[in-house]
Design a protein that fits this description.
2 helices
Length: 93
């Protein structure tokens, strides 16, 4: 007899306020859940949506930082090339 793997359910609790009510009502329009989805599924969908948005923004920020670093490095290379060219023209190198 094989043991059934243990799973742990996580629950999401929130206080209802006008904005949460609007979010729950908007979940089907946002195409996160079907129109007949219960509030718990709607809330679950918004949690996942928020996490995915955060992850996407984090990844995008990391890419922009990498591109900025590359651009700065290219700028330094151009400046160094100009200084080397000036040094050669001046007979220093």
């Amino acid at each position: 007899m094989t043991a059934k793997p243990q799973t742990r359910d996580h629950r999401v609790y929130t206080r209802l306020d006008p904005e949460i009510n609007q979010a729950l009502a908007a979940a089907p329009a946002a195409e996160l859940v079907p129109a007949d989805a219960p509030a718990s599924l709607r809330l679950h969908a918004w949690v996942l949506y928020g996490y995915r948005q955060w992850r996407s923004q984090r990844d995008e920020a990391a890419k922009f930082a990498a591109y900025a670093e590359i651009a700065a490095e290219e700028g330094r290379e151009e400046l160094l090339d100009a200084y080397l060219e000036q040094a050669v023209d001046a007979g220093i190198l």
